[in-house]
Design a protein that fits this description.
Largest interface: A-B, 34 and 34 residues
Helix content of chain A: 10-25%
Shape of chain A: globular
Order of helices and strands of chain A: EHHEEEEEHEHHEEEE
Low-confidence stretches of chain A: none
Strand content of chain A: 35-45%
Number of domains of chain A: 2
Number of strands of chain A: 11
CATH topology of the largest domain in chain A: Thiol Ester Dehydrase, Chain A
Oligomer: homodimer
CATH architecture of the largest domain in chain A: Roll
Distance between the termini of chain A: 38 Å
Structural class of chain A: alpha+beta
């Protein structure tokens, strides 16, 4: 079994937006899928963790892309473990397209939680590090995102049935969708997202009345927060660029 | 090329709800995917239609299931054309699971619209009917659904960026999700949907302020409507049953 994993898919019509290009949440969903399969194939997947009464939780994710693949392009995702420490493991990704070559990287940070207490639990660092790969992932690590919930009003959103994941919590991709829905469609028509970063802080639950906040921190860079009763359940940062004409 | 098409997939963790069973919108998404691939392989797919400046639109869909497949089950979808008339073609589906056998059927009705005028356009009936298969699809055809928007108040929903499809309209699966979100999670915890039927009437557009209405027409059977400015853009009917213990 190779340490790194490679997975391929074709960009389908249900993966693209009105500009016919793969969206950031769709890229996110593919990365999480690939992470799940890669981990399961190497003995630390969902079922393996469940036997120890623990579950993986995604703590942070940063995606950077220099291009947005379009309909019918063939995409390859390579994923590898950069390293594991007592409570966190870092997983990287490289995205390659059949027509655009390497067009993006992503970094993710995962913790394991005890399924009863929902508290972080120590990882099997030695086992994880046997799959460690020393390969460059030339994007900035996910970092601290300034709070914005006290500086700008929020938009309300109530968590519904179709937002929930297998554990009954707001699913990781829906966080991304709800945040990205804060930008007007006019922005999607003419600009591109070059970097999306999210820090998952606590679990969104059915019926929660969230407020979603968004503030331009510097030109084209937005800090965001999703709050429940005034307390952030996630923060995000989104950088927009003007498209490069190919 | 066989007239009917067969497609297989595995039920992934991102396809199931908190009861770890594939949801109706996920089944719907798989059916639409399978329909798209089956049509493209036989020369009447998205690209073929676009060359004639027309596009397929889904007019009606009915899904009936006697069981709800769970995580990691292997699912086979068989699809075939039951017949085509001047303006509509009927496509059927049978769903089979590796552990539950045949567990459901679906019927869909499609029209082609001119991409400029957005008006229905005649189909190539002869070409479509060369792929006609005479195979039973033992569920009721999608029928007339009584209006409910004037009898019960609606819940508001505004169409966002992430709800849009490749054409910039509310995507077919999001209609289903928004409708099914009208039922309380307590119902999903103890009951099962046995039949879901939807009639797509007009295109949901970005920023529309919809109202979603739901009324129990007979025990366990709900009629629904999604309206824009008082006019229905879709109607649906949902039948719930008490689960059969296996």
């Amino acid at each position: 079994m190779d340490k790194a994993g490679e997975f391929c898919f074709k960009v389908d019509s249900d993966m693209v937006d009105f500009r016919r290009r793969m969206t950031i949440p769709v890229i996110g969903a593919q990365l999480l899928h690939v992470a799940t399969v890669h981990a399961a194939e190497r003995g630390f997947g969902y079922d393996d963790m469940q036997r120890r009464n623990v579950a993986w939780v995604l703590s942070r994710l940063a995606i950077e892309v220099s291009a947005h693949p379009g309909l019918s392009e063939d995409i390859k995702v390579c994923t590898w473990i950069e390293g594991a420490s007592r409570l966190f493991t870092e997983r990287c990704f490289e995205l390659t397209s059949s027509t655009k070559g390497s067009f993006g990287y992503a970094r993710s940070i995962w913790a394991a939680i005890d399924m009863e207490t929902r508290r972080p639990t120590p990882l099997d660092v030695e086992a994880l590090n046997t799959y460690r790969v020393d390969r460059p992932c030339p994007i900035e690590k996910p970092g601290k995102i300034a709070p914005v919930e006290n500086t700008v009003p929020g938009e309300p959103y109530r968590i519904r049935y179709s937002d929930l994941d297998i554990n009954g919590h707001l699913n990781s991709i829906r966080y991304m969708e709800r945040l990205l829905d804060m930008f007007d469609i006019g922005m999607y028509a003419i600009r591109d997202i070059s970097r999306f970063e999210i820090a998952y802080m606590s679990e969104g639950k059915y019926g929660m009345n969230l407020s979603i906040h968004c503030r331009e921190a510097s030109p084209g860079v937005y800090n965001m927060a999703m709050c429940n009763e005034g307390k952030a359940i996630c923060r995000a940062a989104v950088a927009w660029t003007d498209p490069v004409r190919h």
